[in-house]
Amino acid sequence: MPATTNEQIIEALRPVEDPELRRSIVDLGMVRRAALSDDGVVDVLIALTVAGCPLRNEITSRVTAAVAPLPGVKRVALDFTVMTDQEREAVRMMVHGNPGATAGQGQAHGHAEGRTVPFAEPGSKTRPLLISSGKGGVGKSSVTVNIAVALAEQGYSVGIVDADIYGFSVPRMLGAEVDPVVIDGMLVPPESHGVRCISIGYFVPEGQAVIWRGPMLHKALEQFLTDVYWDEPDFLLVDMPPGTGDIALSLSQYLPRAEVYVVTTPQPAAQKVAALSAAMAAKVNLTVKGVIENMSWFTGDDGKHYEIFGSGGGQELADQLGVPLLGQLPLVSELREGGDDGIPITVADPDSESAKLFHEIARRIAVDLKSKKVFNPALKIS
Ligand SMILES: Nc1ncnc2c1ncn2[C@@H]1O[C@H](COP(=O)(O)OP(=O)(O)OP(=O)(O)O)[C@@H](O)[C@H]1O
Ligand SMILES: [Mg+2]
Fold first, then answer.
1. Which residues of the chain have pLDDT under 70?
2. Residues 244, 135 contacting (CB under 8 angstroms)
3. pLDDT digits (tens, 9 = 90+) for 250-308
4. Number of H-type helices and E-type strands within the chain
5. If DSSP codes are grouped into helix, strand and coil, which group holds residue 329?
6. Ligand nearest to the CA of 262
7. Can you name the residues that pair with 235 across neighbouring β-strands?
């Protein structure tokens, strides 16, 4: 009689989560065999959701750590197999629901009730944050990525939708340049620095331009919100394309409860353009919750602040919109370098002024600007 029974091994494996789906590997049906031999070898067979799963090593170490301490275990022998199409379908149904189901059927997650966007549901706990600006190059993507990372470091679960279909940049800036895993049509977003992201960048060959009209953009965004396994994050940040247009309109339909944060540079001209993006938000019934000023100053070797792009624009815009100015971010070359290397400054240099400012902005969004309104799903009228 071995010191540990097969049932006890399974129980020890139950708390082990699949790193991508964040569900128990036992519940997901990934554990196919678990037995302890008389000579102290635990034999475990794990069925991966997809062949060549990039997180195989992570699964190995989690499983080993869970069973190695059990009584009588001297060695863990792990073997892998791959799920069949039917098994993958079952997994997708379990975690994400059935896209073909009619209202009232299927699971509570994802587009269980037809092609609805989960974030539009009254009970959704996710706060969608649209990071926008009227014009290009003011630092929307950099701000999105760094705030996302700061929120993740503060313990929240966070996703980013790169809604800049023509000029996507989030995968590179976040260092998440691996393809999403597809499980029975469900996209598992790549994760980096604790943040998951989806971008058109994963779907177009390198160097090719996306030339799509409105309906295609609309469709792509819909897929980003419904076919991606987001698993109800606390925050879903949306990196908006420059300007005001089709994408903002689509997003306002898909994310009616989204909060808009406007990024601007400090010069009055930029602030006027940023005001247009706020006007657009108002037109589509979205609420602007705050202003973030970027490239506010440059600190010279002499320690002096040089206001290269002028000053006061962020505060002026915030006053005009009646919302808080959440922060002023200096111009620092490390911020650009972090974006180029896929290691955001908040991660690369957590003690830097920039990282601290991003953390403070994240905290203000998460805590100070949290809605007091409680969305109680029990009160849903259908
Ligand atoms: N505070 C900053 N200090 C230094 N460089 C910055 C700062 N903010 C942004 N940058 C750099 O400026 C460039 C533009 O920033 P970013 O891509 O984030 O802007 P964007 O508003 O998203 O642009 P687009 O409109 O093209 O999407 C990038 O190379 C970025 O690294
Ligand atoms: Mg951008």
1. 1-2, 99-115, 244, 373-382
2. no
3. 888 899 999 999 999 998 877 778 788 888 888 888 999 999 999 999 999 999 999 99
4. 12, 15
5. strand
6. 1
7. 127, 158
Hey, whose CA ends up nearest to atom 1 of ligand 1?
331
Q: End-to-end distance of the chain based on CA atoms, in angstroms? A: 57
Substitution candidate for ligand 1 out of 132, 135, 141, 247 with most atoms within 8 A of CB: 141
CA of 167 to the centre of ligand 2 (A): 7
Residue the block writes with tokens 């406007």? 262
Burial 179-208 (b: 16+ CB within 10 A, else e): ebbebbebbbbbbbbebbbbbbbbeeeeee
> What pLDDT is recorded for position 371?
84
Q: How many CB atoms lie within 10 A of CB 380?
A: 10
Round to whole Å and give the CA distance between 199 and 102.
28
Buried (b) or exposed (e) across 35-60, using 16+ Cβ within 10 A? ebeeeeebebebbbbeeebebeeebe
- For residue 69 the two structure tokens come to 């301490």
Largest CA distance in the chain: 79
342 close to 192: Cβ distance less than 8 angstroms: yes
Helix, strand, coil percentages in the chain from 3-state DSSP, rounded to 5: 35, 20, 45
The residue length of the chain stands at 382
Rounded CA-CA distance 210/203 in Å is 10
How many Cβ atoms from other residues are within 10 Å of residue 154's Cβ?
A: 14
In this prediction, residue 111 carries a pLDDT of 40
Q: What is the Cα–Cα distance from 111 to 81, expressed in whole angstroms? A: 29
Query: Whose alpha carbon is nearest atom 28 of ligand 1?
Result: 336
Q: Report which of 255, 289, 288, 259 is spatially closest to residue 119, judged by C-alpha positions.
A: 255
Task: Tell me the HSE value of 122 on the side-chain side, using a 13 A CA sphere.
Answer: 10
| Average pLDDT score over the chain | 89
32-84 tens-digit pLDDT? 999 999 999 999 999 999 987 778 899 999 999 999 999 999 999 999 999 99
The structure tokens listed for 155 are: 């313990």
User: What stretches of the chain show up as alpha helix (H) in DSSP?
Assistant: 6-13, 56-67, 85-96, 140-153, 170-174, 214-226, 246-254, 268-283, 313-321, 333-341, 345-348, 353-363
